[in-house]
Amino acid sequence: MTASLPPFSFEEDGVPRGIAVDLVKEAFGRLKVPISITFLPMTRAQTMMASGAADGVFPLAYKEERLSYVSYPREKLVEDAISFFVRQDSDIRYDGDITRLAQYTFGVERGAVYGPNFTQALLSGQIKRTDEAATQAQNVAKLVGRRFDIAVGPRLVMQYSAEVSGHGNAVKELKPAVDLGLVAFLGFSRLKGHSNLIVRYDKVMQEMRKDGTYDRILRNYTRR
User: Fold this and answer.
1) CA-to-CA distance for 194 and 112, rounded, in angstroms?
2) Cβ distance 101 to 94 under 8 Å?
3) What's the rounded Cα separation, in Å, for the pair 142 and 161?
4) Which residue from 4, 93, 140, 198 lies 20 to 30 Å from 173 (Cα-Cα)?
5) Handedness of CA 165, 169, 174, 179 (dihedral sign)
6) CA–CA separation, 29 and 17 (whole Å)
7) For residue 58, which of 16, 30, 13, 29 has the smallest C-alpha distance?
8) Residue 193, by phi and psi: left (phi above 0), alpha (psi -120 to 50) or beta?
9) 136, 87, 81: which is closest to 108 by C-alpha?
């Protein structure tokens, strides 16, 4: 089971696609274990996994309260840092000190969580001006349209949003990353007895990282 979370998982003409989807398909193809991927809201997918109606859910963040019904593998499936993005012609620089950007207006996605560093800068008043968008795709469009100075969001999500909207060459990432954002796994249902499969899955994921398959799949959706 998975939920729509581009570029990690989404449907295109009824076909499951995305970084996480392709990684799971590749891993289970190597394991010679047939799988079926269904899109559901994340809360419903987890309920089905807790009852044993689903074998697994991805991309799923690690939470201790989920350990009663989720077996987490050792290998992460995907991770995505929080980054700042500016227009390609911008001369804004970032050295890791958010306080030096206090004069700028930041574009954010409404309701999104951005990690402790950016959140603390907001709560402490170090960042004073924000402009909200409903989605990260809208955030990118508003940045390109000069509605604000800096967009903040998950790195791979922002890059993908820029690419699919035709703005891939119009924005650039500021480094270093602001925070570690999404860290997610393929979670396995404890009720299904997948302990041996998890060991094999971890080994295959390690092999995919070593032989370049992991990075190749990332590059299919981003400019990494």
Assistant:
1) 33
2) yes
3) 12
4) 4
5) positive
6) 15
7) 16
8) left
9) 136
Sign of CA dihedral 139, 141, 144, 148: negative
Residue in 203, 162, 188 with CA at minimum distance from that of residue 30? 203
3-state secondary structure string across the chain: CECCECCCEEEECCEEECHHHHHHHHHHHHHCCCCCCCECCHHHHHHHHHHCCCCEEEEEECCHHHCCCEECCCCCCEEEEEEEEEECCCCCCCCCCHHHHCCCEEEEECCCCCCHHHHHHHHCCCCCEEEEECCHHHHHHHHHCCCCCEEEEEHHHHHHHHHHCCCCCCEEEEEEEEEEEEEEEEEEEHHHCCHHHHHHHHHHHHHHHHCCHHHHHHHCCCCC
Closest by CA to 71, choosing from 87, 84, 55, is: 55
Q: What is the pLDDT of residue 38?
A: 94
Q: Each residue of 53-67: pLDDT tens digit?
A: 999 999 998 989 999
Q: Which residues contact 79 (CB under 8 A, 6 or more apart)?
A: 180, 181, 182, 183, 184
Computed from CA positions of residues 171, 176, 177, 178, in that sequence, does the dihedral angle turn out positive or negative? Answer: negative
Please state whether the predicted TM-score (pTM) of the whole model is above 0.90: no
Identify the weakest region by mean pLDDT among 3-7, 149-153, 176-180: 3-7
Residue 6: is it exposed, middle or buried by C-beta count within 10 angstroms (0-12/13-18/19+)? buried
Provide the mean pLDDT of the chain: 93
